[in-house]
Amino acid sequence: MSAGRFRPRCTCRRGTEHGRGGVLSGLLRATFAVLALASGEVAAQPAPRLTVVPPAWPLTGAGGDPQTAIAQARTSDQVSVTIGGSIQSSLGPYGDPLGFRAALSERGITYTITYIGEGLANLRGGLKRGATYGGRLDTSLDVDLGRLAGWTGAKFHTDFFQIHGHGLSRSYVNNLTTVSGIEALPATRLFELWLEQSLLDNTLSIKVGQVSADTEFAIAQSAVVFFNAGFGWPNIGAVVLPSGGPIYPLATPAVRVKYVPDARLSVQAALFNGDPAGMHRGDDTDPQRINRTGTSFRVNDPPLLIGEVAYAYTLGLWGENLHGTATLGGWQHAGGFDSPRLDGVAGRLLADPEASGIARRFRGDRGVYGIIDQTLYREPDTEDEGASAFLRLSKVPGDRNLIDVYLDGGIAYKGLLPGRPNDTAALGVIYSRISPAARAFDRDSIRFGQSTGPLRSSEVVIEATYQAEVVPGFTVQPDFQYVMRPGGGLAGDDGRRLKNATVMGLRATINY
């Protein structure tokens, strides 16, 4: 969706390696068969009891694990977040005309409608000054198949997006980490469509269908309040993976297995089709245009494997027990990846005028990430007001990727102002380092006379935001971002490095 999410190229060349993705296709079919057998066995048993969560962690946080960050925001553009509150409660008898919604809920059918609208302006720097408006209408449907049809432990979920407006990063800033988490090309598209089966007294779950990785993996609960897309899915994956990876707005077929033996520990892994859009057709290389409606359902691309372990713990700070989560994860992609510097002909550099112009191809790519998400302070005599902080680091090989190190961190405070218990203020920083190979390409280009510079180095984003709850389910949020060295230090039309960009924005979110 940015140079982080909406611009990553497909790294697969025509006729190379796509057949290996048949592993996922076969696994999907096998998993459906296992689910069918398991559901038949489980359905004959008494309904399983829900996993008991200790009183210390009564809430579910972003990504489905226990909420340990006290400052998790009430609303968010991230699809991993269950939005707190619904405007239905403020509409009185008009909140559920004829009781239709309540009647469906009794049968295990729930739906949610969320609209996010925002105005953003680049006041200086970047590509050019200007302003945009963008919006996203989310409609989601969840079905408890146990209550509806007697299929014990089974859930169905699907959601659709109607995306409209224009993106500030694409048109005005040209940065690596998209200014807004909803920025995408205008479209009406299917996002996720999956079936989940819970087993072993709800400690094991298997999800099959079209899935997005950023709904469950690499999530920092304290970061969900921010505008910038980098605070959602670590931008290092969005930049280097084919078509930006299986993240908003492009989900892809997958199988996800999650094991939660107790409220503190969760282990999960997923096998995704490795390219949600696939090879480009003609001159159009934008993944969102290639997969316009989200219904490509590709299963034959080289697979992407992601695994993650999260552990919820408690620290004694300032005489109080405060919760946190430590997460360690990694991914492996089986496709082909281009060198930013080396030509396909041995001994040649891409910047050499006599080179073939076809980059050296590496087999596979991989990455690791770690997250610390910690509540730092709880307001006296409150359950959900106080400060939380997060730190997230990700690393990938520097010889086949545009960026090789990604780091973000920040602090959020819920209930900072008296009388505003559900408002959230936050300050965060993102650092994306241009890889050694990409920096060497810049030096080679100058040496061979193909460029006069500048040399790319890194991009830094500083964001300050404040989310105010008007009524439950309705928030407004002013935002400020300062983007240093957009694109890592890209050159503008004048050949000079793009100036640092100053961005202001205002978002409104309504949830029903």
Q: What is the topological layout?
A:
Elements: H1 22-43, H2 100-106, E1 109-124, E2 130-144, H3 145-149, E3 154-165, H4 168-173, E4 187-199, E5 204-211, H5 235-240, E6 252-259, E7 265-273, H6 287-290, E8 303-317, E9 320-343, E10 359-378, E11 386-395, E12 403-414, E13 424-434, H7 436-447, E14 458-471, E15 474-484, E16 501-511
Antiparallel strand pairs: 1-2, 1-16, 2-3, 3-4, 4-5, 5-6, 6-7, 7-8, 8-9, 9-10, 10-11, 11-12, 12-13, 13-14, 14-15, 15-16
Summed up, what is this model?
The chain is mainly beta.
What do these coordinates show?
The protein has 512 residues and is mainly beta. It has one domain (60-511): Beta Barrel (Porin), CATH 2.40.160.180. 12% of the residues lie in helices and 41% in strands. It has helices spanning 22-43, 100-106, 145-149, 168-173, 235-240, 287-290, 436-447, and strands spanning 109-124, 130-144, 154-165, 187-199, 204-211, 252-259, 265-273, 303-317, 320-343, 359-378, 386-395, 403-414, 424-434, 458-471, 474-484, 501-511. A 16-stranded antiparallel β-barrel has the order 1-2-3-4-5-6-7-8-9-10-11-12-13-14-15-16. Residues 1-21 and 32-55 have low confidence and may be disordered.
